[in-house]
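Hey all, quick one. A colleague (J.T.) asked me to put the pyridoxal-5'-phosphate job into the tracker so the inputs and the structure tokens live in one place instead of scattered across chat threads. No bug as far as I know, just bookkeeping. Sequence used:
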Amino acid sequence: MQPLRSFSVVPRLPENLQPLWKLAYNLLFSWNGDIVDLFARIDARLWRESENNPVAFINSLPQDVLEELSQDEIFLSRLDETLEELDGYLSRTGSAFSFANQDSSQPVVAYFSFEFGVSPCLPIYSGGLGILAGDHLKSASDLNIPLIGIGLAYQQGYFRQSLSPDGWQTERYPVYDFEQMPMNLVKDEQGQAVRFDVNIGEQRVEVQIWQAKVGRVDLYLMDTNIQENPTEFRQLTTRLYGGDVEMRLQQEVLLGIGGMKALKALGLEPKIIHMNEGHSAFAGLERIRVFMQEQGLNYEAAVELAASSCVFTTHTPVPAGNDRFSPDLMRRYFEGYAQQLGLAFKVFLALGREDPRDDAESFCMTVLALRLSRFNNGVSRLHGQVSRNMWQKVWPQFPTEDVPIGSITNGVHHPSWVADELTFLFDRYLGSNWREEADCEKVWRNAETIPDGELWRTHERLRERLVSFARERLRHELLLKGARQSEVDASEDVLDPQALTIGFARRFATYKRANMILSDKDRLLRMLENTSRPVQFIFAGKAHPQDNEGKKLIQQIVQFCRESNCRSRMVFLQDYDMEVAAHMLHGCDVWLNNPRVPLEACGTSGMKAMVNGVLNLSTLDGWWAEAYKPDNSVGWSIGRGEMYDDHRHQDYVESQILYTLLERDIIPEFYDRGHGNLPRTWVHKMKQALVELGPMFTSHRMVEDYVRVAYLPAYKNFLELTADGGQRAQELAHWRMDMMTKWDGLQLRNIQTQDGGELYVNERVQVSAEVQLNSIAPENVIVEIYSGALDQEGSFVQRGAVEMTCSEYTEDGWAKYSGTFAPGKPGRFGFTVRVLPRHPNLLDPHSLGLIHWAS
Ligand SMILES: *Cc1c(COP(=O)(O)O)cnc(C)c1O
């Protein structure tokens, strides 16, 4: 039996220290070093032990320390300054973007995510997806974008990892006390917790809401652990990715449908919904239901409105990674809901099926999200391409290239991830605006002016810090395990603060191939045992509790560390989290990443490494396929992004490349020391990476991209479609129906070009065509020349589309179109003509799935 919630006795803060709470209850401290300094100044040891949690920290302060502090003039003036800084940040107005006519007390965008990684003290994340969501909120706050986050308050978070003596992962689930964390239960004016209920299947479940402040952005977390709820449903918000398939479905109902209800209970009316991954796709359904109920729209009009103001980001390039639920399970939870939408259950299920007519197909959350959003994107260029391939069946008429899934490459929040020691250098040489203007090329160009020696010495200090951190961690692990004193003492000698340090840390999903470096143990040992050019490895990462293959990888590494004579050159740090990540990303020399292409959608840890001057060594997957320069001037690539059918062969080939790169390039370069023991070539690479990649791979650039290409157009759509009480949404729905009925009657004929089989590069080719519009108005279609290079089989390998213009319109519905195109390079080239729908509220002409090709 667990207590519902425990209460803690807290110290009484003297009046003049009360403002400390304000600093503690805003997660701004996770990217503002001054606030952290202030806490650490009170008691550095207690602060370290509080695991970055200022609320728990203040609550742990002895009363006499507080009394003394309240008399400490120097501290009090520092407190004042820091508060001023916070207030200044929070009250800053103005933004590069404006959402016209927006009520400033209301958010425009609600960002839904299953996990958020904002700070290690709020452990409701498992990996990259959550950290990305956290960085999204932080950049939105910095850029003053009116956005809020919606997620779940997992009382046991994600699991904590320990390893058994033989290296097998075991999971612990500490129960977190929300009262001791930087978040508050949302209460109404009478001081009562704001509650709402949501139907999860047959069960009505009560929900309360926690609010965490992420700078200017509010993060709302739903919690069902309330006495009135049946136990089964109280446990709904216990663990992230913890339960079985049915619990996952229930959690997703809570996130999507509950999330929409939470907004209502909070009096918030965001116009745009951003679904970060398919987990929250039920939010789209709930919006449709509400638009029908409250605005009196019919289903079709409500879909138009909901989809036109929804943004969906997909993250998973592996089919199995996308949540799917069986039709039977869906029936138990959604039969009544489908009725409320006025849909036959089969039609409802079709929303989540790639092939709507396939009754055997399960219900896929990603497909639902794709169908309920008119703006869809992957998280790197390569992942966009992979996603278009993966979901082509949802748009059966379209060539893969035209599947309406674009890409916005992820970024990381620099101020959260750059080591303090480096921020001093950046302040001095990049200018103090490197935080705000993280995506400005001019700012990052200044990285060239950082003196080599200063950068290298700073980096060496960070490596040394990492080594002490690792030793301390290992010592702690050994003490907990009750190891022999000699073993504990030996942890003092682990790792060498001067040695080339290679880091590998991430979730232990098998496609990330954490054990690749072990594939030729002798070759690895030769590197590890070299005393003149020492090399060492630090590993960390958790495997999902049900992923035995992932756990085996951890075990292999741990056993190798143990069995070889290289214990002091290869270590595995337990319980990977944002804190461990930060130390590793600050202090390694090389960040190793060898996922099987193209399974890493983006990968963000490498970006965090890059802004700390840590060089990347990675397969050409995700972001690295965009960032890598073939002259190796910003880091190294393992292979050239080839994809293999034979995985064993691939692993062999790529591991050989990895060893060779290390032996031939990386180790010699690191130890090629010149004047002042500086590795000049290496330091130049560190700087070059900052200059070239710094401005691109930041979450400021990412959030700005979302604002420009997704949020602003979606906002405009929402305003236009809801003006006149939803009249325009109704019209758009009618228009769509009309297009769908008339579309089959489109015809293309008389497609002509000037004669001649041979063309010259860049020579313009005139094309004309006649289109039977079947009484569709010309302004409602786009007629395009679709042209490009052809492969051996005569299929397009690369293509572009040029709009044709209507020159003549005849009585019987035929219109004459013309246009030109020019082949840009020699080789086989082809073209065809196609027709797409056009409407001012349609973000992407492909998203309706209507297309007519010349036959
Ligand atoms: C950045 C980060 C990740 C994501 O790393 P990938 O390279 O995308 O696998 C995972 N976990 C933590 C703690 C991180 O900070």
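Adding what we noticed when we looked at it: The chain has 28 helices and 28 strands. The longest strand covers residues 203-214.
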